[in-house]
Write a structure and sequence with these properties.
The structure holds 2 protein chains of 2 kinds. By secondary structure, chain A is an alpha/beta fold. Chain A is about 30% helix and about 25% strand. In chain A, a hairpin with a 2-residue loop joins strand 9 and strand 10. The longest helix of chain A has 16 residues. The radius of gyration of chain A is 18 Å and the shape is globular. The N and C termini of chain A lie far apart (about 35 Å). Chain B has 2 domains: about 180 residues, no CATH class; about 100 residues, Alpha-Beta Plaits (2-Layer Sandwich). Chain B is about 70% helix and about 10% strand. Chain B is built from 9 helices and 4 strands. In chain B, helix 1 packs across helix 8. Chain B starts with a helix and ends in a 5-residue tail after the last helix. Classes of the chains: A alpha/beta, B alpha+beta.
């Protein structure tokens, strides 16, 4: 999949049109995500994150890099409030997750779209049903589901494969289905956890292109990855974790530290 | 709200059939366990009925003095019948006693020696049947009270026998109840664990629901309805099997316990309520506790 520059219209209007909602984005520089002095110690005593500070403004595209065990997964778990920080504040779209009442958790999760290395598609449901599932289980009225699903499938380029089952799709198509599902709630932030980990380099680039395009439409993207080529080539903001600490946070960074 | 219920029911139905093997395994376990429960319930009911029957055979026998007139006996009978512990009072005259004695000898095939007697040696007596065997002492002390001295010759001493019988029946009653409770707990744990397996098999589906922001209710209720479906289907199959087996079971009950006053009709009603409630309750409980593990912490 390739995109010519002419396809990328001014971000806000296209996003509103494509995702079917108009929002007042007066504060364009408003932070989608703020982590302040976050420390996470698991009950077994292992410290996974230590004094992490991170601010992600709206519309940012951030690579999260670091070796296995550096705390990337823990960070993502904190963002979707699967775990709570032992210390410090995680603020998503103005809401402190630690103070969130239990009943609000599900609603806040709809502000995040999450994409995994292993796609996590339901094998007995078609592409269309997999995407619609995200709306069904959050109580969206049926008449709103159809146009929303059709829109995101068009966005990721899977309109023709809408009736196919996941095992009939290539890896790249499966991941695009997962991205469509992540987008269907019109989220503020897309978290992609190693989205290209199971894909060959060519298909990986397709997925990256798609995420970039979504970012151009105004959705903030946080992508955890080991793919050094991609990170180095794109020169986006790079946040590097090591042993639970942020050791580097630079715009236009590359995968490895230049010593 | 209606939309939510429709959604949950539709998801429960889909979930049941899309994981048909797991659902049928859970239903089969449900049927086996409910059969076990029903079996022990039937045994327990039979046991209780036969114990009641045995206790009802306990009677207090008081020999009357010779030549006692009917008007002297009637006040005693009236007073005994007024006691709540007393079920029935039979007056056996001297002639009745002789007839019964001859019948018993004839049944045992013994030679009737009474025809060599010139007078009836037997006493008239009062046979008091009790509602419950543990009222024995109260009735004996009533009959032994001094105001009946002129009428009652002696109260036959069977206190020890009655006490032993009450002890044995109480032990059997308690044992039956304890075994039934233990069986009920075994059934509870096995069914809950089977449903847990069916839920664990779909952990990924639940995981996805959580990640896309489904609320607890949307995750929980489809599984609860599905558990209810397994429970009701299991209960229906169990009752169907019991229905086909009811004739042999009835014959077995009569043969094994020698209990005539047991009516299978009332037992059948109890069983329908028991099996239905246990199936539905266990299905719902099983899925409720199994899904809880996966909800927002």
């Amino acid at each position: 999949m390739t995109f010519s520059p002419s396809q990328i219209a001014p971000a806000r209007s296209v996003r509103s049109r494509l995702l079917g909602r108009s929002r007042d984005h007066a504060a364009t520089d408003r932070a989608v995500l703020v982590l302040h002095d976050v420390t996470k110690v698991y009950p077994n005593g292992k410290t996974a994150l230590e004094e992490v500070d991170l601010v992600i403004p709206e519309g940012d595209f951030v690579f999260l890099v670091g070796p296995s065990g550096a705390g990337k997964s823990t960070l993502i778990k904190l963002l979707i409030r699967d775990e709570l920080a032992t210390h410090g504040a995680v603020v998503l779209d103005g809401q402190d997750l630690a103070r969130l009442p239990r009943r609000q958790v599900a609603k806040v999760r709809r502000k995040i779209g999450i994409v995994f290395q292993d796609f996590k598609l339901l094998p007995q449901k078609s592409v269309w049903e997999n995407v619609a599932f995200a709306l069904e289980v959050t109580g969206t009225p049926r008449k709103k589901i159809r146009p929303a699903v059709d829109r995101v499938l068009a966005l990721v380029g899977l309109t023709a494969q809408r009736a196919q089952m996941p095992n009939q799709l290539s890896g790249g198509e499966q991941q695009r289905t997962a991205i469509a599902r992540a987008l269907v709630h019109d989220p503020r932030l897309i978290i992609a956890d190693e989205p290209t980990g199971n894909l060959d380099p060519l298909i990986s680039w397709e997925i990256i292109q798609l995420l970039l395009r979504i970012n151009d439409l105004g959705v903030t993207v946080l992508m955890a990855t080991h793919n050094a080529d991609v990170v180095t080539a794109l020169r986006k903001r790079v946040v590097a974790l090591e042993e639970g600490r942020v050791i580097r946070d630079e715009v236009g960074g590359i995968y490895h530290r230049v010593d | 709200m209606i939309g939510f219920v429709v959604f949950s029911l539709r998801r429960a139905w889909q979930g049941f059939w899309r994981n048909a093997l797991m659902s049928l395994a859970a239903t089969a376990t449900m049927v086996l366990m409910l059969m076990l429960l029903a079996g022990f319930w039937i045994l327990q009911t039979g046991l209780q009925a036969s114990l009641d029957f045995t206790e009802s055979k306990v009677e207090v026998v008081a020999d009357l003095k010779d030549n006692v007139k009917t008007f002297e006996v009637n006040p005693i009978i009236a007073e005994l019948q007024a006691m709540p512990e007393v079920r029935e009072v039979d007056f056996i005259s001297e002639d009745d006693a002789l007839v019964l004695w001859r019948q018993r000898l004839a049944q045992q095939g013994e030679e009737d020696l009474t025809r060599y007697l010139d007078a009836n040696p037997l006493h008239a007596s009062l046979n008091v049947k009790l509602v419950q065997a543990d009222a024995y002492a109260a009735v004996v002390s009533e009959l032994r009270s001094t105001k009946w001295n002129g009428v009652i010759d002696q109260v036959k001493e069977q206190q020890a026998l009655a006490t032993n019988l009450v002890t044995v029946t109480n032990v059997l009653r308690t044992a039956g109840t304890v075994i039934l409770v233990v069986i009920a707990f075994i059934v509870l744990f096995i069914i809950v664990n089977t449903i847990r397996l069916a839920v664990v098999a779909r952990a990924e589906e639940i995981e996805i629901m959580r990640l896309v922001g489904a609320s607890d209710a949307f995750i929980r209720w489809p599984f609860v309805f599905e558990g209810a479906m397994v429970g009701m289907l299991g209960a229906a199959l169990t009752l169907l099997l019991l229905y086909f087996a009811s004739d042999p079971i009835g014959n077995f009950m009569v043969g094994f316990f020698q209990v005539l006053p047991l009516s299978f009709g009332s037992l059948a009603q109890e069983l329908i309520v028991l099996i239905g409630a246990a199936g539905l309750g266990l299905g719902v409980l099983g899925s409720w506790v199994s899904v809880r593990t996966y909800l927002i912490r």
